[in-house]
Amino acid sequence: MENQREIQLKAWCEAVTGYAQGPLQPVSGDASFRRYFRGSDGQRSVIAVDAPPQQERLDIFVAVAEAYRAQGVPVPEIIAEHRGKGFMLLSDLGSTLLLSKLQRDNAPELYRQAIDLLPGIMTVIKTAEGPLPAYDEALLQRELALFKDWLLERHLGLELSPAEEQLWADFCELMVSNAQEQPQVGVHRDYHSRNLMVLTDNTLATIDFQDAVLGPVTYDLVSLLRDCYVAWPTELVQELAEYARTLLQENNQLARTVSAEQWQRWFDLMGIQRHTKAAGIFARLCHRDGKDGYLNDVPRTLNYLVEVAAAYPELAQYHSWLNERVLPAWHQQSNT
């Protein structure tokens, strides 16, 4: 049954397109308050977006889209918008997510295509709305806290001892330091296989970029290659990460003094930060928003934390804590 906002969105689409809409067809949404519907302008399929103004800002989406387009980054065309109502009409990029196309034999080439879009994204450090917000220490700490607040305490019911609190604080300090010592560039902030569309000509376009920030150079790369939704062999990930380092150095977007070893460390620890945040978000989506399906993605994020932490001596205590405290609590909770 259509709710009031859907009725209003449909009427607005008809006014904008001059075309009588049939029932708007829901399109797979995301983890935000935005909802997407497929409609028509009489000649082509279009995407109608419902973004309640109380929770979402269309001005940021529009500004980033325009800035990305100016740098040659393929994004949806903005056909019309009504910021007061929180409505937007976009070109339809289709329904084929990169995730659905990935196979072991084609993954290297598809990922190289996605990596080739990163220099354009990294170039965007400001929009018509002003400079991108900084991915600063406060934001990094808020993201890391999601893991402790929502996964450990709310979902698993863990109460940290003073020693564990200190271990957590030391871990967070290392994550923040790793992020801040990297070159700061334009960051999409959610660049992965569910936010990359495969178009009819087999090129890629990106969506869901409204949270763009100025942040660490490895952030989008690790988001792509250490995806929360699909895992690849370490050898392939490292090969593609090195492809990205070479590409950025050839584009003069990364100093040639950044060695493969330095790049890999930045990449690995950035991945730990992102997966820590993601695991917390998945738990929050379950408990706050009633989207318990996201809990299915938590084991992949926890496995990544354990696997990568094992390679760094400074994370030895953290690695032991994950194995001895967090994973057993997760398995116990999952079996109840």
From TrEMBL:
The keyword ATP-binding applies. It comes from the Bacteria. Signal peptide: none annotated. InterPro entries: Aminoglycoside_PTrfase (IPR002575), Kinase-like_dom_sf (IPR011009). Keywords: ATP-binding, Nucleotide-binding. GO terms for molecular function: ATP binding. It comes from Pseudidiomarina planktonica. Residues 24-243 form the Aminoglycoside phosphotransferase domain. Pfam families: APH. This is Aminoglycoside phosphotransferase domain-containing protein. Gene3D superfamilies: 3.90.1200.10, Phosphorylase Kinase, domain 1 (3.30.200.20).
